[in-house]
Write a structure and sequence with these properties.
heterodimer, A: seven-stranded mixed β-sheet, B: alpha+beta, four-stranded antiparallel β-sheet
Chain lengths: ~400, ~80
């Protein structure tokens, strides 16, 4: 008889491997997102800008509110590649009364107030629809003026269009609420983890604070963004799908998948989400031309894919990228050997963060070995720390005699 | 006080220890003061499955062999 009793049944091993991969991906996300210091720094600067605007003598500013939007607000920010600065997006919400000024005048008024500041005047840059404060070496803060959108029953806003001739509908706060509602959905599976909580206070909206495990949806969005950045580095960066497209498709796919399926692991959740993303892109043909729609569900008239209709090659690039990330994630589930997993992760998400994560994990094992906190448990393998894994066998200190 | 001596285990005792330890679940042969034991090990969730065997003769030191996978190709794919 030469058949060995299997150490772990195949399906259990696959599950263990998927959970091991999720463990690396979770650590990877922690590496590619802004550090707590960077987040605190951005929060301080954002609140200071908010106070400066609120202290303006003009009545319009005294009733205005400034609030974060975009990935910092959603908790899905990732470090840009090649040492580029973070982008922190803020909305300066004026009252409806300010709408009488028109988009160009309101934007000018906001710029004038920022220019009155002793420091901001030197780091202020005019952008087509907003004002940018360049905090060199840290991040840049884009501040867009907005007024309430009376036609939106969902608390939407109007922001200047690129030519500053008209107002465009948007709804960052509604979008954030919907995203948080979806992120709070917990998949039905064996392991369940707590989601980060949000607090709220004051008239200057609190800078979003995410603690502990961020939740699967936020992690998926971060991984999508990172994969996109790596992929388009070698393609054409102008074709890169914008973050709000990835976030919207992932959030909708997550809501659908969590409501429909039961999962064995968080890895399977990610795979289901990536697979389902394209189903939320609408496509019609108008006068023989393809028209793409990824609607902002929280307001009327905002199509995140509007640029795809001017540049159809961007839609094609999205689908090419989607095929690649789906193939990469599916491939990850089939790999055996931490060297193979590391190699694939590095190709998909970049060498530097993956090597950083793997090195940290190796160091943890070494430290645990030195402190005699290393064990081997049946079906699991190496266990570090004083964990209460039943039937774990302590690993003795390694003498490394073979090296002498 | 009497010091405990570090007494060497016999091949039979080693065999029983291997057979009863869940981290070395496998099969082996014991005969005339020597044993061979074959089992599978996975160092971590992401690791490959390694098939190992140990040969031990009383009075000697155990020799451990990695039967599968071949270590050189694994090393090459990692580099």
């Amino acid at each position: 008889m030469n058949a060995l009793a299997p150490f772990v049944a195949h399906s259990d091993r696959t599950l263990l491997r998927k959970n091991g991969t999720v463990g690396i991906l979770e650590r990877l996300c922690a590496v590619i997102e802004p550090t707590d210091t960077q987040k605190d720094n951005a929060k301080d600067k954002y609140e200071t800008v908010g106070s400066w605007l609120a202290d303006a003598p003009q009545y319009l500013f005294s009733v205005a509110r400034i609030s974060p939007q975009g990935s910092f607000a959603l908790g899905t920010a990732t470090k840009p590649l090649n040492g580029l600065e973070y982008d922190v997006d803020l909305l300066c919400r004026f009252t409806a009364f300010a709408g009488g000024l028109g988009p160009a005048d309101l934007k000018r008024l906001l710029g004038d107030r920022l220019r009155e500041h002793g420091v901001y005047r030197f780091i202020l840059q005019e952008m087509p629809r907003c004002w940018r404060l360049n905090f060199e070496g840290e991040f840049h803060m884009d501040i867009t003026p907005s007024i309430p959108n009376a036609a939106c029953g969902n608390g939407g806003e109007l922001v200047p269009d690129r030519k500053l001739r008209a107002w465009k509908p948007t709804n960052p706060s509604g979008y954030l609420k919907l995203f948080e509602k979806r992120a709070a959905l917990t998949p039905v599976m064996r392991l369940q983890k707590a989601l980060a909580a949000m607090d709220s206070r004051g008239a200057v909206d609190p800078f979003p604070k995410h603690v502990g495990f961020k939740g699967i949806l936020r992690r998926i969005v971060q991984l999508l963004k990172r994969h996109r950045d790596i992929y388009f580095e070698t393609v054409d960066e102008s074709l890169r799908p914008i973050s709000v497209i990835l976030t919207t498709l992932a959030a909708r796919a997550y809501e659908f998948s969590v409501g429909k399926y039961v999962f064995d692991s968080e890895f399977d959740v990610m795979l289901a989400v990536v697979r389902a993303m394209p189903y939320y892109i609408e496509h019609h043909t108008q006068y023989g031309k393809p028209q793409w729609y990824i609607d902002n569900e929280t307001t009327e008239g905002e199509n995140f894919a509007e640029k795809w209709n001017l540049h159809p090659e961007r839609a094609a690039a999205f689908f090419e990228w989607h095929r690649q990330i789906l193939a990469d994630v599916e491939h990850l589930a089939t790999l055996e050997g931490s060297d193979q997993v590391t190699k694939s992760l590095a190709q998909a998400f970049g060498n530097q963060p993956v090597n950083q994560v793997v090195a940290a994990m190796a160091e943890e094992v070494n430290t645990a070995r030195q402190h005699r906190m290393l064990s081997v448990a049946p079906q699991i393998g190496i266990v570090t720390g004083a964990s209460a894994v039943p039937r774990a066998t302590p690993v003795r200190s390694n003498t490394f005699y073979g090296r002498k | 006080m009497r010091c405990r001596q570090n007494r060497n285990l016999s091949a039979a005792q080693q065999y029983l220890a291997l057979r009863s330890n869940p981290i070395s679940t496998g099969h082996g042969l014991l005969s005339r003061g020597q044993l061979t034991w074959t089992w599978q090990a996975t160092p971590s969730a992401l690791s490959r499955v390694y098939t190992l065997h140990v040969e031990f003769k009383e009075g000697g030191t155990p020799k451990v062999f990695v039967d599968q996978p071949e270590l050189l190709p694994v090393w090459w794919t990692a580099s």
